[in-house]
Amino acid sequence: MTAVRPDIAPKQAPEATRFPTGFVWGAATAAYQVEGAAAEDGRTPSIWDTFSRTPGKVRNGDTGDVAADHYHLYRDDVALMKRLGLKAYRFSISWSRVQPTGRGPAVERGLDFYRKLVDELLEAGITPVATLYHWDLPQELEDAGGWPQRVTADRFADYAAIMAGALGDRVGTWTTLNEPWCSAFLGYGSGVHAPGRTEPGSALRAAHHLNLAHGRAIEVLRGQLPATAQTSVTLNLHQVRPLTTSAADADAARRIDGVGNRIFTGPMLRGEYPEDLIADTGHLVDWSKLVQDGDLAAISRPIDVLGVNYYTPTLVSTPEKGAGSSRDDGHGASDYSPWPGSEHVAFHLAEGKQRTAMNWSIDPDGLYNLLMDTSRDHPQVPLMVTENGAAFDDYVSPEGRVEDPERIAYLHGHLDAVQRAMADGADVRGYFLWSLMDNFEWGYGYSKRFGAVYVDYASQRRIPKASAHWYADVIRRHGLPETGPS
């Protein structure tokens, strides 16, 4: 393993470029993307194990069977985090590792991995931030109907209780769900994510039951955790923009905002589903039967922090405005739409913008606008940037280094956007870079690299990229360099 460059005390950043005291610097991963050990110590298949083994679903037939082998190399990885100066590590828990069938008692060997990981983090002075669900539903629960079935929310509450009992004395920040939009609409709408179903009505039902699972988990966590613990949910809020100023394009943006954002923020933060969303999707699901008495009260239980994930803005129009369709929205090609009730909306890439290896437009102003809009719409809840980063075509030089100036520029621009939003009144408490290391990138397999740390999958060698050293310097400064990347 290549060591991080020695710590050198940086020149003190000017006050204007420094972040507030207490601002959290972290990095994030997800269980199926990094852990590996897919069949060890009692773990059973999740929907992503099944999906990745289905021919044609994942590029090159890649699976997460080994991934970055974090399950065996976590001590080395935590040591690397410490050398980079990370103050927090956001990880997710594999539900099928600790409760293989999604019901019944826990497997202690699975819990032990997370106990050891958390202890290692605490020993290194790194705050553990646990996410209960990052898309890897136990396959047995999917076989019983998955998220479109209401009972799955009950099972999730039981699972939350298990984890609170196992780690509640050591983990102070808990996230219920990561990006439930992806779970519902990519998993059950377009089918580009596990479990690969293409049923718009089921996708909407899944969204409601994910909301309900969040609320029930918050109730469980609040009942079992110390009063000082913080609860949260992480949403990949879409920074939606109309292509033109026309009324038709404005309506397209409204529709996508409804099924992309307000389907979650409405019930979670306001205790209601938006009326226009219900009208747009009422032909696909009977909301009056789906939403039962007490659901909205359960879903809207207060949280301490709202996690915001941002990568690129969402530019939309009506179809007559030009090329694009709902399956060109940057989430993966499919003949089916992840936007139920808005299948006719067209998606576009902003002109004149640089793009990442995912073909996503690079636009830090989108993060600024998203933070400002969210802060304005929901001033009662502090924000945390829980994912932000970019994939580029990284490679190891003959000298053994990974130079990634594009990622440094991306991170600098987006951290500047965070700082501008905070200066303008947004209550942002921290930033988690996505991702700590290269990993299994869902339907793209190992073809896309988001990590600040390069992973040689053949040897599992870790090589901090230039961006990792840059980020380590930002953390030491508690602020951005005085000048931007060249």
TrEMBL record:
Organism: Streptomyces brevispora
One Pfam assignment: Glyco_hydro_1
Binding site for substrate: 33, 134, 178, 311, 434, 441-442
GO BP, sorted A to Z: cellulose catabolic process
Active-site annotation: 179 (proton donor), 387 (nucleophile)
Family stated for the protein in its record: Belongs to the glycosyl hydrolase 1 family.
Annotated protein name in UniProt: Beta-glucosidase
Top-level EC class: hydrolase
Keywords: Carbohydrate metabolism, Cellulose degradation, Glycosidase, Hydrolase, Polysaccharide degradation
EC numbers, comma separated: 3.2.1.21
UniProt GO molecular function: beta-glucosidase activity
Positions of the UniProt region annotated as Disordered: 317-337
Known catalytic reactions: Hydrolysis of terminal, non-reducing beta-D-glucosyl residues with release of beta-D-glucose
SUPFAM superfamilies the record matches: (Trans)glycosidases
Highest rank taxon of the organism: Bacteria
GO cellular component, one term: cytosol
